[in-house]
Amino acid sequence: MDQIRKLIPNVQPRPKPYEVETTTHKPPILPEKKRAIGEILDRWRLNEGWLPRDAASQDFEIQSYIASLDRARVPFDAYNELFERSLVTRAIAIQQGRTLPIFGVELLLAHWLGENGLAKERQIRLNGDRQLNPTCDQVCSRCLDTGRQVFAPHRGLPCDCAYGIKVR
Q1: Residue 5 has pLDDT above 90, yes or no
Q2: Would you list the DSSP string of the chain?
């Protein structure tokens, strides 16, 4: 090896894997996310009759969970509801004599994704507040269903459609 280094003096030895610096920048994890996942993990361990982990080892677990949940774009305010759904899933499995699903990030993601997932439910709730009238025919042409006329020369006057009579 020394003979090779003499022949090629500019070659640097390869760094060991733990000495390699990554160039990717990871943004810091929000304290709210850490707290939300930490509470879930503590509740899970206490439900199982185990002691909570120490802060250092739990931090690694929290980072792993958050990385997976962030890839699926799960907002941290949904973490607790996903945990509650996971508990219900496990309770139903016990009741029906099926194999008990193991708690983990996969179970949380299973309740977030898919046709019956929390993401879909939240989207439906959000879209429910934004529904337009079925057709423009049902909107009064004088007051635009506000109860007061909006066009001159009768602007501001009460519209007779406010009592259910649509004027076209």
Answers
A1: no
A2: -HHHHHH-TTPPPPPPGGGPPP-PPPPPPPHHHHHHHHHHHHHHHHHTTPPPPPHHHHHHHHHHHHHHHHHTT--GGGHHHHHHHHHHHHHHHHHHTPPPPPPSHHHHHHHHSSTTSHHHHHHHHHHHTTPPPS-GGGS-TTTTTSSB--STTSTTSBPGGGGT----
The token duo for 58 is 């739990």
Nearest Cα neighbor of 82 from 47, 41, 141 is 41
Q: Is the pTM of this model over 0.70?
A: no
What one-letter code names the amino acid at 60?
Answer: F
d(CA 114, CA 12): 50
Per-residue pLDDT tens over the stretch 53-86: 998 889 999 999 999 999 999 999 999 999 999 9
Instruction: Provide the residue ranges of all domains of the chain, joining segments of one domain with +.
Output: 29-128, 133-168
